[in-house]
């Protein structure tokens, strides 16, 4: 026990405590419990490359494709928000020139189609890796 918290050492206690200690409390406090404590094995820390220890070339390619797919799929939502904001700005700005307004709407529709196609490809790459 930590001497700072050992109340048995107070004057007038004569080294004895009036309270009985529960079994194992001394060991939990860092003292000895009579040798019944088991030594804990230290966790083995390996490098990140141990993930690829048993992977062959095909596995590494699939993992890289899955990583690219996950990143692309994750980036699709912020890009969708940017395109949607552009759509709102175009509709909120009014239609001063019908030709210009129609051109902006068509550009935003094209961008949404490209985003949907890209998201489909990235999701396919990210999910296909798991099923192979």
UniProtKB/TrEMBL annotation:
InterPro entries: ABC1_TM_sf (IPR036640)
Transmembrane segments: 60-83
Record GO terms (molecular function): ATP binding
Protein keywords: Glycoprotein, Membrane, Repeat, Transmembrane, Transmembrane helix, Transport
A cellular-component GO term for this protein: membrane
Protein family: Belongs to the ABC transporter superfamily. ABCB family. Multidrug resistance exporter (TC 3.A.1.201) subfamily.
Name recorded for this polypeptide: ABC transmembrane type-1 domain-containing protein
Organism this protein belongs to: Oryza meridionalis
């Amino acid at each position: 026990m930590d001497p700072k918290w050992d109340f048995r050492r107070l004057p007038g206690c004569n080294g004895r405590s009036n309270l009985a200690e529960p079994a194992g409390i001394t060991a939990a406090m860092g003292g000895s419990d009579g040798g019944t404590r088991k030594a804990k094995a230290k966790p083995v820390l390996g490098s990140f490359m141990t993930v690829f220890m048993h992977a062959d070339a095909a596995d590494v390619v699939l993992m890289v494709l899955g990583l690219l797919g996950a990143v692309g799929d994750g980036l699709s939502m912020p890009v969708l928000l940017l395109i949607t904001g552009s759509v709102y700005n175009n509709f909120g700005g009014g239609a001063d020139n019908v030709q210009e307004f129609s051109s902006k709407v068509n550009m935003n529709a094209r961008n949404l189609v490209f985003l949907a196609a890209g998201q489909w490809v990235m999701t396919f790459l990210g999910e296909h890796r798991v099923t192979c």
